[in-house]
Specification:
The protein is an alpha+beta fold and 396 residues long. It has 3 domains: 122 residues, NAD(P)-binding Rossmann-like Domain (Rossmann fold, 3-Layer(aba) Sandwich), CATH 3.40.50.720; 51 residues, Dna Ligase, domain 1; 156 residues, ATP-grasp fold, B domain (D-amino Acid Aminotransferase, Chain A, domain 1, 2-Layer Sandwich), CATH 3.30.470.20. Helices cover 33% and strands 23% of the residues. Strands 15-14-11-12-13-16-17 form a 7-stranded mixed sheet. Strands 5-4-3-6 form a 4-stranded parallel sheet, covered by helices on one side. Helix 1 packs across helix 9. The longest helix has 18 residues. The N terminus is likely disordered.
Length: 396
């Protein structure tokens, strides 16, 4: 077996990397935005099927780069601060590694879609076109489309003056509930309007209930959906879930299919809903045109979205039956720790939440911890600690 040193120059010396290339260190799929558990579950899913996966991110050390399942890794410039550098770096690595598939996993999908014509024609990039991604990622436009086709939505306020409290204030572009607020009175609402004066915003009625997410993959007539509900969320009021359970909810999946068909969306996505079991009311929240944070739950339940996505993009079909196990539970270990710290610092944790955070029984899998891959979890801890020290925030 021949092993040799290979130095690949990227757009800036900061991102140069030495690595060993050999016959076992090949690349079938290049996955981007790999600092978190979503990238890790994609990596695990594909590598366990024999797919050679390289992972990339702005960071050199994270849950994916330190996983034994990664065939290789590299860092690129921040796509949201240096878009040309990001694209240039990706192109250089793609021309070196020759992957079959480039798989974006988060908001960098929009940037890659915008530059799709610059990538080699032989490279498969299984995401929707830029205009469609942009429209569905916009919470205001997605909500308007949902309402138009008969999917239940919250009441949308056209101005701050007509708001009836309680309400939800959010920017139309955002993730992980970072720009979602629940103003309790007009003074708080007006302060938010002033604070985000340069952003497009959406103000809706606040809907009670539990967060539900419908994970989907759609390629023309092929469409598979699965629903999970949040058991515990990192922020009060909803948002990123740290514990989830798959459920049977045909009504939500019907609404998800309606919206995807209306938009003619092909690819992976997740649709978020609120459901109030006291009243039976359902309300659409948003579309995430990417892999969702609850991916581990979906995979553990038998709906292996990353591998199906890979097969559809390379072979054009996936013929195996998908049998989803209702009642499958998963837990994001570090997410629960962050939730515990956040609640304690704000003096807002209940005894029930504390009990839930400290529970480790009854879960089919953990989002970020595997006994056979402990270095990956250390990589996740390192990344979050580094961001905490740098930004003084628990939510990177």
């Amino acid at each position: 077996m021949k092993v040799y040193d290979k130095v690949v120059k990227t757009s800036t010396n900061l991102y140069n990397k030495d690595y060993l290339m050999n016959e076992y260190n090949q690349c079938d799929v290049l996955v981007t935005y790999c600092w978190n558990r979503v990238g890790y579950n994609i990596l695990r899913s594909l590598s366990e099927k024999g797919v050679k996966v390289w992972v990339a991110d702005t960071s050199h050390h994270n849950i994916c780069s330190m996983s034994k399942y990664a065939s290789g890794s590299f860092a690129y410039p921040d796509p949201f601060k240096d878009e040309p550098g990001f694209i240039s770096c990706l192109l250089e690595w793609i021309n070196e590694l020759k992957p079959q598939v480039l798989l974006p996993t988060h908001d960098e999908s929009l940037i890659i879609a915008r530059h799709r014509d610059e990538f080699p024609s032989w490279l498969r990039i299984p995401i929707a076109d830029y205009d469609l991604l942009n429209r569905l990622s916009n919470k205001k436009q997605a909500t308007a489309l949902a309402a138009k086709i008969g999917v239940p939505t919250p009441r949308v306020y056209e101005s701050a003056e007509e708001v009836v409290f309680p309400c939800v204030f959010k920017t139309v572009i955002g993730n992980s509930a970072k720009t979602v607020f629940y103003p309790s009175d007009r003074e708080e609402l007006n302060a938010l309007v002033k604070r985000f004066a340069t952003d497009e915003i959406l103000i809706e009625e606040k809907c009670d209930g539990i967060d539900y997410s419908v994970d989907c993959i759609r390629y023309g007539k092929y469409c598979i959906t699965s629903t999970y509900k949040s058991i515990l969320t990192k922020t009060k009021g909803g948002g990123t879930s740290t514990q989830r359970e798959t459920v049977g909810f045909p009504e939500l999946e019907k609404y998800a299919r309606m919206l995807l068909e209306a938009a003619d969306y092909n690819g992976v996505c997740g649709l978020d809903f609120k459901y109030d079991d006291r009243t039976g009311r359902v309300a659409f929240i948003e579309v995430n045109t990417r892999y969702t944070g609850g991916l581990a739950t979906t995979i553990a339940a038998g709906f292996d979205i990353p591998y199906i996505h890979y097969c559809l993009s390379t072979k054009g079909q996936y013929s195996r039956p998908v049998r989803i196990r209702i009642g499958t539970k998963t837990k994001w270990v570090l997410g629960d720790l962050i939730t515990l710290v956040s609640r304690l610092l704000s003096f807002s944790i209940s005894s029930e939440e504390l009990k839930q955070v400290l529970c480790f029984k009854g879960f089919s899998a953990f989002d970020d911890f595997r006994k056979d891959d402990k270095k990956a979890f250390i990589g996740e801890l390192y990344y979050y600690l580094n961001k905490l020290l740098k930004n003084r925030k628990l939510n990177p």
